[in-house]
Amino acid sequence: MTPTALIICGALAREVIAINQKYGWGADVFGVPASVHSHPQKIAPLVEKRILELRERYARLIVIFGDCGSSGKLDAVLERYDVERIAGPHCYEMYGGKTFEALMEEEPGTYFLTDFLAQGFEGTVIKSMGLDKRPVLKEIYFRNYKRLVYMSQREDETLKARAQKIADYLDLPLEFRHTGYGLLEERLAALMNAAVPQLP
Amino acid sequence: MSQEIFDKLAQSVIDGEPDDATKWATEALAQGLDPLECINKGLTKGIEVVGDLFANGDYFLPELVLGGEAMKAGLAVLEPALVGSKQRKILGTVIMGTVKGDIHEIGKMLVGIMLTANGFKVVDLGVNCKADQFVGAIKEHDAVLVGASALLTTTMGYQKDLIAGIAEAGLRNKVKIMVGGAPVTQEWADSIGADGYAEDAVSAVVLAKTLIGVPE
After folding, report:
1. Is the interface score ipTM higher than 0.85?
2. What is the pTM of this model?
C-alpha cells in the first residue's frame, strides 16, 4: 500500500507535484478541478468523493486546499473522515504568508495573481466569470481594486508578461513579489514529517 | 398593454439587461402605468425568476449580478415616481456594508437586491466600512437590520468589532445583525454574537424576515 495520497486543488497542482518530487516523498497526487472555485459549494462534496475513492487504498490522506469559500463545509467533511488539511484559508496566504497580510493591510483593494492565475487567467477568470460574453461585468467585478500584485512561484518572464497584459486589461498598476512556494512548502513538509495517523 | 410592459420589465431582469430595464421603466411611466405595479409585477417578478434559476443551478454568478444590475436600473427610474399612498410597503430598513479592510461587494450587492425585491429598504454603505458608519446609518435611517459582509479571513474579525461598536453605541437591542461572506460560518456567527448567518442571497431574505418576525 502506498502510504500517502495528496488530494489537491488543481490550482496548486504544479507546485505540489514539484514539492513532492523535491522531497522525494513518493506520494500519489489526485486533483480536484480548480474550476470548482466558481462554485465553492461544490468543494466539500468533490473532496469527499475523492476521499471515498481513496481511503481504502492509502494509509494516509492529506487534503491540500484552502477553505476557499466553502464556509467551513470542507473542514466539516474532513473532520468526519479524520483527514488532515494543510493550514491556510486560500493559496494567496499559503504562498505569501506575512507578505500577503502586509499587502492587504497596505491596500485592501489588492487583486492577486499566482503562477496558476497568470497562466490561465482567460479560462479561470474571464470565461468562468462571464467576462468574455458580458464585458460590462469587468467594471462591476473589479471597480474596487486599486492594484494588481503578482506573487510568483517561479521566475518566468513569459508569466510576467502575461501578468502585465492582465494588469493592462484590468487597468491596474502591477506589482511583482516572488514568493516561491512559501508556506505551502513549509506546511506540507511539516505535515509529511509528522507522525502518520491511521485512517479509521 | 400594461401586462406587456410588466413582462418586458421582468424579462429585462431575467436577461440581465440594465439598458432594457431603464427603457421599459421609462416607457411604463410615459404610458401612465403605476410605478408600484411595475416594480411588483415586473422587476420583482423578474428577480424572483433569476433567484430561482440560480438556486436550481441554471444561472450562475454573471446572470445573478447582471439581473441585479437590471433591477437596480429599473428601480432608479420607477422609485422616484412613487408618490403618496402608492409607496412600496417596506418591511424594514437594512443597513448593508462590507466591513473595514475589505473591498469585496458582489455578495453583499446580491443580498441587497434580493432584500429590496422582497420588501426591505436597503441602505448600502459600500465597502471598507467602519463601525461608526454603521452606527450613524442605523440612527439616521431608523434601521431594524444590519448586514455585514466579509470575504476574507483577515477581515471577518471586524464583524465582531462591528457588533461591539453597535453595542457600545447603545443600539444592540434596536437592530438584528446578520453576517455573511465566503469564510463566514454559522459557528463564527454564533461565536461573535451575531443574530444570524446566511450563506447566499436567497437564504438571507428568509433570515431577514425571520429576524424581524415576518412570516414567509
Report:
1. no
2. 0.86
